[in-house]
Structure formats: C-alpha cells, structure tokens
Specification:
alpha/beta; Rossmann fold; 8 strands; 39% helix; globular
Length: 285
C-alpha cells in the first residue's frame, strides 16, 4: 500500500503561523523520544521505530516545515537555526518537559543545538549517520549541490537528489513501495524547495550566513559530553563517511558506538532490526 495519512496518524500544529505535521503516539506519561529526520527524508524514516517502541515510549516525529507533510513554504527560506526554534515552540505546545533525541542526517546538528539549549531537559541522545560541525569533510557532490544553479537543478527542479539517495543510501535496496512513500511529499518544484534550502544552508565558507552557527555549536557541544550518547552508523555512507564518524566520536569520547560495515546512509532501513534492539537497550538502561 502506498502511503496515506491514516497510516501514521499525524497531527498538525501551528508553529509561527505555519502548519507542522507531527506524529505523536504512545502514552503521554511514558518517556518521550523526539525523532528528527534529515534531508531529503521525512518522519516516514522512523516508521519502524514508531511501530515497535510506541508501547514503551511516547514517540514524537515532526516533519520540518517545508518537508514531509508539513506546510510547504515556497516563498520562505529556513536555516537550521530557524528549525531549532520551530522545535522549541512545538515542545512548548506539547508540554514536553523531559525527552531523549533520535537524529539522522541534518536532524543531527539541529537536534544537537536544541539539546545544548535545553540540556537540563534532555536525557539521552542517539545520532545516526549525521554531521555536527564537520562540514568541510563533506564529499564533493554535497559541495556541488550547495548553493549553485546546478545544485538547485539537482535538488529542487528535478527529483535527482531524492533518487540518488535511493541508489546510494541503502546497501540492501529499498522496495518500490518504500521508494514511492519517500517520494510522496515531494512531487513538485515547490514541494522540493526545502530540500534545496537544506543543502544551500551548508556553510562551506566563512562568509556563509550559517557559518557562525556551526562555530557556536562547536563551543556548545561540550555541554552534552556527559549525556548518555549512542552513535548508529552505516559505514558505506558516501556522504557521512567513516571519517565524519571519527570526528563525531571526538566530540563524544564516552559514546556507545555501533557501526555496520554492510549498511549505508539510511542505516535504519539497512539494519532495522539490529538498530531497534540497540535503541531499546540503550534507552532502557
């Protein structure tokens, strides 16, 4: 079955006058796990986590504004720091006091910055194939996609960036149904505006508007070093490669690390069962 809204039971919240789609399942009294997707995915990426952990945890999976089923904003551009503020306002509406974070791709730096600002409320952190401050270690194809006309063609004008993820992002391969579900929210040029904005927001030079945000995050990350942290990584990821994992480990030398030699960027797709077991074990400690 191709995706329909009834499958995920999402709700919509007003955030700064914009409609944010949020999956919110589980008992409100249960420990909360906030799941943050990256680019160009959406909350669908966490469907196995939702289905398997919702009896033990309150699972909250927002779609960033402009992504997934959240309102598309073709005339607005958001930086990562804006998305941190969106999440803070969502947490206020949901009256979430304590929570853990599960983050993938660009959900990592967004969630890390959120955690540094709300560190007393954050319990545990799980990072999956992401980067925090290692933008200069990103491969050339990401640099190509960031802030160029050809990059805009690749990410927004066409669905090339999305389809590249299906080819290189999974070692085991994705079924046709899963691919169609990932594509579901991104049918048109306007639907894909935020996909381009994410890559255009990568500060590859010191003159970039987000450069200081990354520099500030470097200074703030030590606030999280004593938190329980788990790193889940597919080592075949052509984007967030082994070198980036090693840099992230330097930020968090006490982190628990589970790396897979036969998994790629979409590690929760390639190693769904193994990751779920590890996540349950880590959160249950």
């Amino acid at each position: 079955m191709i995706y329909s809204e009834s499958q995920i039971q999402g709700k919509f919240f007003d955030v700064d006058g914009m409609s944010m789609h949020v999956v919110d399942v589980g008992e409100k009294t249960a420990p909360t796990l906030l799941c943050l997707h990256g680019n160009p995915t959406w909350s669908y990426y966490y469907r196995n986590v939702i289905n398997n952990l919702k009896k033990e945890y309150r699972i909250i999976c927002p779609d960033h504004i402009g992504m997934g089923l959240s309102e598309k904003m073709p005339h607005k551009t958001f930086r990562a720091i804006d998305r941190v503020q969106h999440l803070k306002k969502l947490l206020e509406q949901l009256e979430i006091k304590k929570f853990s974070l599960l983050m993938h791709d660009w959900g990592g730096p967004i969630g890390a910055r959120l955690a540094t600002e709300l560190q007393d409320r954050v319990e545990k952190l799980i990072f999956c194939n992401t980067t925090l401050t290692e933008v200069r270690s990103l491969p050339s194809f990401i640099r190509f996609a960031s802030g160029t006309l050809l990059g805009k063609f690749f990410t927004q004008i066409t669905s090339g960036f999305l389809r590249t993820m299906f080819i290189f992002g999974s070692k085991k391969g994705l079924s046709k149904e899963v691919i169609l579900n990932y594509l579901f929210p991104y049918k048109t040029f306007n639907d894909r505006k935020a996909i381009y904005d994410f890559v255009a927001d990568i500060p590859l030079t010191s003159s970039h508007a987000s450069f200081n945000d990354v520099e500030n995050l470097k200074k703030l990350l030590p606030r999280l070093a004593q938190k329980p942290i788990l790193l889940l990584w597919g080592l075949l990821d052509p984007c967030f490669h082994k070198g980036i994992l090693q840099n992230v480990e330097k930020h968090f030398p006490k982190a628990d690390v589970l790396a897979f030699h036969d998994a790629s960027h979409l590690v929760l797709e390639d190693k769904a069962e193994e990751c779920l077991v590890k996540i349950q074990e880590f959160l249950g400690k």
